C-alpha cells in the first residue's frame, strides 16, 4: 500500500524557516519532519511513498538524490585519474520514493488528483507533511478495511489553549482550572486511508480536500473517523518546531518507535 504525503505548501506561518525550504524539510533532530513521518510508516511496513511537492520542490528532490550517498560508507579512488567509488556499507531504509511536482499553487485535493496515475486503483494512505503522530497505522488500515467506506481520517482531540471557566447564569465564575486533553473538539489529524474512489470527488487544481470532497463524502456516508487518543502534533509555528525538537533531543518523542 502506497503512502501519499502532501509536501507542496508555502508554510507561511513558519516563514522563519520556510523561506529557505519547504516546511516538510524543516528539521527535527537533524532530519526533516518529512523523514520522521516516513519512518513512522516504515515502522509498520509501508515503504513506498509518493510525495506531492510544489513550493521549492527541488529541495526535496535533491535531498533524496543525496540520501544514499550521505548514509553510506564509500571509498573515493582518484588514483587512476577517474572518480571510482566503492560502496562498503549503506544504512538506508528500504524505501521507494516518487517525488511529483504537483504545482506551485495547487490545493490539497488537486495535488492528490495529480498523483492518480501513480496510485491507480489501489487503496492508499495519505497524510500531511508537517505533523507527527504515534497512531498505530496497521490498526488504522484494519479499521478502514472493516467498514468498507471510501475514506477514513484519524481524529484527535484538539486541546483548548486557555484555562477552563465554569460560568453560571449570573455571570459568576464558579470554578477555574487549567485546560485538559478532553476539553477540546475532535479535529482531522491527517493519517487518512482512501480507496481509489476518492479521485471521483477531486476535480482540479483548485479542489481543497478538506472542503467539498470530505463534506460530500460525509453527506454520502462514506467518511469514517478513527479515534486516536495518543500523541499528535503539527508544526505550524517556530514554537511548535522547538517543542518537537526538544522532545526528540530528550528522547521523549512519542512518534519515534524505530530504533536508531
Describe the structure.
The protein has 260 residues and is an alpha/beta fold. The chain has helices at 15-18, 33-43, 57-70, 108-114, 116-119, 137-147, 212-219, 238-249; strands at 3-7, 27-28, 31-32, 48-53, 72-77, 84-90, 96-101, 124-128, 131-133, 151-157, 164-167, 173-177, 186-188, 192-194, 223-227, 232-234. The strands form 5 sheets. Strands 1, 4, 7, 8, 10, 13, 14 and 15 form an 8-stranded mixed sheet that branches. A two-stranded antiparallel ribbon has the order 2-3. The protein has a two-stranded antiparallel ribbon with strand order 5-6. Strand 5 and strand 6 (84-90) form a beta hairpin. The longest helix has 14 residues, at 57-70. The protein is globular and about 70 Å long. Residues 171-176 have low confidence and may be disordered.
Secondary structure: elements and pairs:
Layout: E1 3-7, H1 15-18, E2 27-28, E3 31-32, H2 33-43, E4 48-53, H3 57-70, E5 72-77, E6 84-90, E7 96-101, H4 108-114, H5 116-119, E8 124-128, E9 131-133, H6 137-147, E10 151-157, E11 164-167, E12 173-177, E13 186-188, E14 192-194, H7 212-219, E15 223-227, E16 232-234, H8 238-249
Parallel strand pairs: 1-4, 1-8, 4-7, 10-15
Antiparallel strand pairs: 2-3, 5-6, 8-14, 9-16, 10-13, 10-14, 11-12
